[in-house]
Amino acid sequence: MEEVALDKIPEVDANGNPQLVAVDQGQYFPFSVDPETGTVDAPGQDVKLLNMLARWTKMMPPKAPFPPPPHIVQTTLSKNVQMAKDSGNASYRTKDWPSAIKHYTMGIAMATTRPLWEASELTSDELTTLLANRSAAFNGAEAYVEALCDADAVVKIRKPWSKGHFRKGQALTGLKRYEEARAAYMLGQQFEPDNEEFAKAIAALPKA
């Protein structure tokens, strides 16, 4: 973008917000800040990351120190994610697969909105639990490709968790990829040797 002359920059933008000026390598660029959202408008400039940080900052508790300490958790968001998971589990128990998938998907969408300053373990636990549950629901609905995609994501995020490997084995079994399913079950079994479900699932696979 070409430099804008200082005397050509209006005092306010189209929304009536004060027009400010930034300098980048000796060039002047106009920008404005929305007082309600805290987001920046800078024509011709990529401010997506800056605006994302601004939105996250507004989500912080009142009078929170900056940068915020890592123990800050959005309890309302946690409750909403838990509610979505519980609703999905209730639908899963009645084999209402579309409803279960819908609620798990809502929970996944909410869990991914956590700001970067919150503990990564919290997001990881929420996401992997919801993805594993949705994989099981997809498996129940015989949507095995979708079930495999979710199980793969669980394994990549939380490899030592045996449930991700079990869900992957189930999806691969549904796809009749039995040797891959056997490998998935055996890998998961290494993380939880006493879990008899792995032995049963392996024994139920067709012999090569």
Automatic annotation (TrEMBL):
<keyword id="KW-0677">Repeat</keyword>
<keyword id="KW-0802">TPR repeat</keyword>
<dbReference type="InterPro" id="IPR011990">
    <property type="entry name" value="TPR-like_helical_dom_sf"/>
</dbReference>
<dbReference type="GO" id="GO:0051879">
    <property type="term" value="F:Hsp90 protein binding"/>
</dbReference>
<protein>
    <recommendedName>
        <fullName>Translocation protein sec72</fullName>
    </recommendedName>
</protein>
